[in-house]
What does this fold into?
Amino acid sequence: MKKSNYIWNFLLIAALTAGALWFALKDNYQEVMDAIGKISPLGLVVILSWGILFTCVWGLAYKVLARKYVKNYTWWDGIVVAFTGTFFSGITPSSTGGQFGQAYILKKQGIDYSDGASLLWADFIIYQTTMMVYVTILFLLKFSYYAHQSAWFTIILAGYVVNILVILFLYTMALFPTVYISLAHRLAGLLSHFRFIKNPQHMIESWTVQMTSFTREIKKLSRDRTVILQCAGINFVRLTMLYMLPFVIARFMHIDLHFSQLIDVIALSSFVYMANSFIPIPGASGGTEVLFNIVFSTLLGSLASAVMILWRVSTYHIILVLGGVMFMIARARYERREQQSPVSLNPQPSMEADLQSAQQADPEYPETGAPAGGEPVGLSIDDLRPVGCADSRQEPAMETGERKMED
It folds into this structure.
């Protein structure tokens, strides 16, 4: 993504956040300020540090996954990857840039783009599965009760269905990869007929390589139950911390919430994140704040706005800024280390070339992505190629130095 687009995204985030704050404060500004003023200095530190803490927990999952590739990979390395993902996800529409930045950092930490793409696939699969199991339980326990109180919960149900479809899509891809390759072949032919794509064969080849990488990672994960259980446990803790923050804020504000209502707060928080699936704006700004007020007003009344302000600052704005700072510092440190290393006969690639390669290996970019590590063991492109699909492997799979980063 171009720098000018990042600037426009920041401006859009600021404008939508300002609009959401106006919406939250227009009717009860003084009441909200009084509620926030009741929080002790220690309570404010805990609240504002909460988002940093659960992002650090996410870094622990990267440590577990990366130890397969780098034996001395540390928790701090994983934290840098987690904050990088938070930063790029927060400033790109529908969080599409997170894995792109993470693949770049993983490469600087000594993990090839192909292995980095596999690691990110594993993290995404385990996280998405854990989240949907978690939220499904909450839906069964609490959704019907709150759905009768507001028609807005229909949006939440739609978001839940979308996430269920994503999970089904992922696992059916792993079980029936040839079906999806065949569909990609037919779709490419259809789009090329209407001139929506210029090189249908390249699209098919890229999608085939992505499918082999994904299928390989699913098979590897199924054999490594210890890693699955560890990462699922880490994600459970991370999600619990994320979902319970409104309860922590309400208690510090002396809002009359009992511990028996903690499960209600966790459920409502998860419902807000489910509905975010329909907000393709960087950071889901604007819509998230408004939806939080609507959903939590059933439990917190007019003080939902006061809780929302601190919740959003902790879970989005602070870690967005900190993630950007950490990415810049980490990038400078890794590039300085490369410059100080012994001179190689092959020149070091530029940052732009590295970022292009990261985007090509990124699981979020199947149109142009292709792992750099070749075909996985036990599963070749030919195994997945549909009948009648011509062989175009003479074309380069990676054109890192020539391609321009897509907007």
About this structure: The chain has 15 helices and no strands. The first helix runs from residue 3 to 25. Residues 343-348, 362-407 have pLDDT under 50 and may be disordered. Residues 276 and 348 are 40 Å apart (CA to CA).
